[in-house]
């Protein structure tokens, strides 16, 4: 199965604001407050981790500042020196303490990590890390290790296929499922639609695309898809469970394609 969404596993996040082009150190409590304020304001936070003030660090910070300067209403820029206790604590929370430095991490308002840039960063990469709301929610749920059913609609209210509703009652899956609505007419989510390999014309009635961590497209399911068919597709994708005698194994072997054809 192809990974369609770059999604890092869920990480706790603590950030601090950077003043101009300088590299400042801040205590962990201040970093936490900065992140909380940024999230409450609905902003993305970009934190640059560094070990020393080397030219590579200065170049990365310059690129981050220049690229995001015009997005001050949408973005907070932060720095953290991993050689300090506060910076090391934050790096460990992001699970990047052993990563090559410098590194910039992009964090969405909902806590999802939307970008990781090691040693160098580009304007295109930074811009791409500022993702629209539905993609942001999908990434957060994937990082929380959820099976994400993106329920597609042409209106404000998304319909959930009956098979997916039944899956929510299955003890094996009920705590692992997240439902996210997506209006196929929303131009801001065009990239997500492309990644889900969905054509708006396919959406006639209840329709859902399923993605599993870290961003694997499992299949498309419509009103005719049964819970057993969906479970079989999950098993076939290797996202069901580790039980070799899983009850869904036989169905997966018998299935040669996803229930709802694209």
UniProtKB/TrEMBL annotation:
Entry-linked SUPFAM superfamilies: Thioredoxin-like
Leader peptide range in chain numbering: 1-24
Keyword terms of this UniProt record: Signal
Protein name: Thioredoxin domain-containing protein
């Amino acid at each position: 199965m192809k990974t369609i969404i770059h999604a890092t596993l869920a990480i706790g996040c603590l950030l601090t604001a950077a003043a101009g082009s300088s590299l400042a150190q801040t205590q962990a409590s201040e970093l936490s407050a900065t992140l909380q304020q940024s999230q409450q304001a609905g902003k993305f936070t970009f934190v640059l981790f560094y070990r020393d003030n080397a030219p590579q660090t200065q170049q990365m910070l310059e690129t981050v500042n220049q690229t995001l300067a015009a997005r001050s209403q949408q973005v907070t820029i932060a720095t953290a020196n991993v050689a300090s206790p506060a910076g090391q604590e934050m790096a460990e929370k992001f699970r990047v303490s052993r990563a090559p430095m410098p590194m910039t991490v992009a964090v969405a308002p909902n806590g999802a990590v939307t970008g990781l840039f090691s040693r160098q960063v580009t304007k295109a990469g930074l811009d791409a890390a500022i993702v629209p709301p539905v993609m942001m929610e999908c990434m957060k749920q994937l990082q929380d290790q959820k099976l994400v059913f993106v329920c597609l609609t042409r209106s404000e209210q998304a319909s959930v296929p009956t098979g997916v509703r039944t899956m929510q009652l299955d003890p094996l899956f009920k705590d692992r499922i997240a439902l996210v609505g997506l209006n196929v007419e929303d131009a801001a989510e065009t990239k997500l639609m492309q990644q889900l390999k969905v054509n708006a014309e396919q959406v006639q009635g209840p329709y859902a695309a399923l993605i599993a961590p870290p961003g694997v497209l499992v299949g498309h399911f419509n009103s005719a898809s049964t819970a057993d068919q969906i479970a079989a597709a999950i098993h076939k994708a290797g996202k069901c469970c580790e039980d070799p005698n899983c009850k869904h194994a036989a169905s997966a072997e018998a299935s040669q394609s996803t229930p709802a054809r694209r």
